[in-house]
Design brief:
- The structure holds 2 protein chains of 2 kinds.
- Chain A is of the alpha+beta class.
- Among the domains of chain A are: 42 residues; 156 residues, Glutaredoxin (3-Layer(aba) Sandwich), CATH 3.40.30.10.
- Chain A contains 7 helices and 9 strands.
- In chain A, helix 4 crosses helix 7.
- The radius of gyration of chain A is 43 Å and the shape is rod-shaped.
- The chains are: A alpha+beta, B mainly alpha.
- At the A-B interface, helix 5 of A face helix 3 and helix 6 of B.
- Chain A: It is found in: Mitochondrion inner membrane.
- Chain A: InterPro entries: SCO1/SenC, Synth_of_cyt-c-oxidase_Sco1/2, Thioredoxin-like_sf.
- Chain A: Keywords: Copper, Disulfide bond, Membrane, Metal-binding, Mitochondrion, Mitochondrion inner membrane.
């Protein structure tokens, strides 16, 4: 039984000796390499005070605290909230900016170069028979609508809508908007008729009329299509075909945007108020 | 009252109603409302009897919806009566076309063609 053990033992001894020999050599070689390095000032005990073997990277009282911190990494509820808030803030800002730019583009696109594309000078009379011109619109936003008192369905509905949006704008920006109604039927809509007609919609509405040629010129400037049937005998009833848009004009008398049947009074009022917000100049309120 | 009253009565009310019918004066809000109500009743009757164009199917319309037609013509200007009848044909055609397009997978845009606000 002893015989097989002896060679085994010898083998182990030999391996260990070889291993230590290698270790020795390695130690010697690394020690030799060390000598070629740049000399460093000798460290003395006086310059290096005793440092306890405690990890000082985080200031935690307990190991558990440190462990939990390690598990969650640099994320805490505070940083989370901060991240979400910043994100939401930026998103809100960009959305606002986008909308503003969109509105600006609409307003700018409508301005045109040189002569405005829609709107222009006019000389008409209001429902009290007083002269009223484009100069009376300057300094305020104005909402211009074309229609006629004998209109069967659309104009009365749209005028009710105009009254609603005017009131909505009025609550936020009193006196900043002029609601203007221009008749396309000057033959029948004299100041008296207009006064009676408009008083049922809103006391602040301004009704404009004039001669056929004056109205025709006004409609042409505002790019309003209207057609009075030809060959109407005096006293004969007729309907006038006309465009049904509200024209929003800025304080300088330039066209801003057309509001149509698809806008609810609330939507329209919002569009108007937003444009007013964007206006950098003065808006007269008296 | 009625059509005969138009010629015999000289009362203010009748005079006014006749002026509205002829289109010499513009109706007030209340008068317009009355006209629209009688129009809606008349159209409801036409719907019931499957009449689309009351101008073309004049005989059938006046036979089936006599009472409603009389009221309609009494409360509205003559021009308005014709206009509303034409509008009805166009509106029905428009609705049909829209339904057709929708069946084909068209995208509906938000456009209001109703007289009354949607409730």
């Amino acid at each position: 039984m002893m015989q097989p053990v002896t060679p085994m033992w010898a083998f182990i001894q030999a391996t260990v000796a070889r291993a230590t020999g290698q270790q020795c050599r390695r130690f010697l070689s690394s020690a030799a390499r060390q000598q070629t390095r740049r000399p460093t000032p000798p460290c003395t005990a006086t310059t290096r005070p005793y440092q306890p073997l405690v990890q000082r990277r985080f200031k935690f009282k307990t190991v558990e605290e440190a462990k939990s911190r390690y598990r969650s990494g640099p994320f805490s509820w505070k940083s989370g909230v901060l991240f979400v808030l910043t994100g939401a803030g930026l998103l809100y800002y960009f959305e606002q900016e986008k909308e503003r730019m969109q509105r600006k583009r609409v307003a700018e696109a409508a301005k045109g170069v040189g002569r405005p594309k829609v709107g222009g000078p006019f000389e008409l009379i209001d429902q009290d028979g007083k002269p009223f011109s484009d100069k009376d619109l300057k300094g305020k936003y104005s909402l211009v609508y074309f229609g006629f008192s004998h209109c069967p369905d659309i104009c009365p509905e749209e005028l009710d809508k105009m009254a609603k949006m005017f009131d909505l704008v009025q609550t936020e920006r009193p006196g900043a908007l002029l609601p203007v109604f221009v008749t396309c039927d000057p033959a029948r809509d004299d100041p008296k008729v207009l006064k009676e007609y408009l008083s049922e919609f809103h006391p602040s509405f301004i009704g404009l009329t004039g001669t056929y040629d004056q109205i025709k010129a006004m409609c042409k400037e505002y790019r309003v299509y209207f057609s009075t049937p030809t060959e109407v005998k005096p006293g004969q009833d007729y309907l006038v075909d006309h465009s049904i848009y509200f024209y929003l004009m800025d304080p300088e008398g330039d066209f801003v945007e057309a509001l149509g049947r698809q806008h609810s009074p609330e939507q329209a009022a919002k569009v108007i108020l937003d444009h007013m917000k964007d206006w950098t100049g003065q808006i007269k309120t008296a | 009252m009625g059509i005969l009253g138009l010629f015999t009565s000289t009362s203010e009310e009748e005079k006014r109603a006749s002026e509205i019918r002829k289109g010499t004066v513009a109706p007030t809000r209340a008068e317009r409302q009355r006209c629209w109500e009688s129009r809606d009743l008349y159209f409801a009757c036409l719907d019931k009897h499957d009449i689309i164009d009351a101008l073309k199917e004049d005989k059938k319309a006046s036979k089936e919806c006599k009472a409603e037609s009389t009221k309609f013509e009494e409360n509205c200007a003559e021009k308005w009566v014709t206009y509303f009848k034409q509008w009805r044909v166009q509106d029905i055609q428009k609705r049909r076309r829209l339904a057709e397009l929708e069946a084909q997978g068209g995208i509906k845009l938000d456009v209001n063609t109703q007289f009354t606000e949607k409730k």
